[in-house]
């Protein structure tokens, strides 16, 4: 049984004519006849009484019509993904670096859950070094990364938003003498593989500076507290330090690096209604 046979059957029932059905659906009249004959053969009974030139639904046809109409509507809903938000279920697995996880996603997830209350969210912090492997192995539906432009085989990316990187200190900085600033302060790095660290290392290389004292921390809050307590300077995205800047706990200088946050997913991943709904919110 084919969908087109059911559509042809329903249209004949509505128009009462093979000719009008042919014109409406764009099939040759011989094809319309074949659709109905094949459908009747598969069902094992006739659907219409053919009274001369008149085509009238018989008892069997009336009984089948409501079922055919329901099947057609269900398939149309599936094709269009027009499922009401309250009916969408499943689990959405999201991985993101700390800055996005802590400072961008909470408000977005609040909106998502209010629209799609039956979807379970599996949210976890993930290192930039592990993101692509997690996507490739199917452990994540959606991931986020902060970088220039991700170009990884089989991974699709959508720009999420621009990010602003800041060199931060617990006191006002004399940027006119940045070499001295970098040479005389302890350098606090984020973890290896993190874009903020790469940006910081590029600045140091630009001025041919080999820092004598460094620290490596994998937690933004720890880095902020160390900088606030005069243990060094660091590079972090503005979204992570805005409150401390407003409260004058930290002072910052905008780095020239232009970077963005990106939404990532595997190109062969089945785009479930839950995933599509989340991406729609992110890009709206």
UniProtKB/TrEMBL annotation:
Domain HTH lysR-type: 1-58
Alphabetized UniProt keyword annotations: DNA-binding, Transcription, Transcription regulation
Alphabetized CDD domains for the sequence: PBP2_LTTR_substrate
This protein's record includes keyword DNA-binding: yes
GO terms assigned for molecular function: DNA-binding transcription factor activity; transcription cis-regulatory region binding
SUPFAM superfamilies from the UniProt entry: Periplasmic binding protein-like II, Winged helix' DNA-binding domain
Keyword Chaperone (UniProt): no
Pfam families: HTH_1, LysR_substrate
PANTHER family the UniProt entry points to: HTH-TYPE TRANSCRIPTIONAL REGULATOR, LYSR-FAMILY TRANSCRIPTIONAL REGULATOR
Family to which the UniProt record says this protein belongs: Belongs to the LysR transcriptional regulatory family.
Record's protein name: HTH-type transcriptional regulator GltR
Organism: Macrococcoides canis
């Amino acid at each position: 049984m084919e969908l087109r046979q059911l559509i042809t059957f329903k249209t004949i029932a509505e128009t009462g004519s093979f000719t009008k059905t042919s014109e409406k659906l764009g099939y040759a009249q011989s094809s319309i006849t074949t659709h109905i004959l094949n459908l009747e053969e598969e069902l094992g009974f006739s659907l219409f009484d053919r009274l001369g030139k008149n085509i009238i639904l018989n008892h069997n046809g009336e009984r089948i019509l409501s079922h055919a109409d329901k099947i057609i509507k269900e398939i149309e809903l599936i094709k269009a993904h027009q499922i009401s938000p309250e009916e969408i279920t499943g689990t959405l697995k999201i991985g993101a670096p700390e800055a996005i996880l802590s400072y961008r996603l909470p408000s977005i997830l609040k909106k998502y859950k209010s629209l799609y209350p039956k979807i379970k969210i599996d949210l976890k912090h993930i290192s930039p070094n592990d993101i692509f492997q997690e996507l490739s192995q199917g452990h994540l539906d959606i991931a986020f990364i902060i970088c220039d432009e991700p170009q990884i085989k089989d991974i699709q990316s959508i720009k999420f938003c621009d990010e602003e990187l800041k060199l931060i200190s617990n006191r006002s900085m004399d940027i006119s003498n940045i070499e001295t600033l970098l040479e005389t302060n302890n350098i606090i790095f984020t973890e290896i593989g993190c874009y903020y660290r790469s940006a910081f290392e590029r600045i140091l290389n630009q001025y041919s500076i080999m820092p004598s004292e460094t620290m490596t921390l994998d937690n933004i809050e720890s880095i902020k507290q160390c900088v606030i307590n005069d243990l060094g300077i660091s590079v972090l995205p503005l979204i992570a330090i805005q409150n401390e800047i407003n409260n004058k706990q930290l002072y910052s200088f905008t780095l020239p690096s232009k970077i963005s946050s990106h939404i990532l997913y595997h190109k062969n991943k089945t785009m479930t209604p839950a995933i599509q709904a989340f991406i729609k919110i992110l890009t709206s």
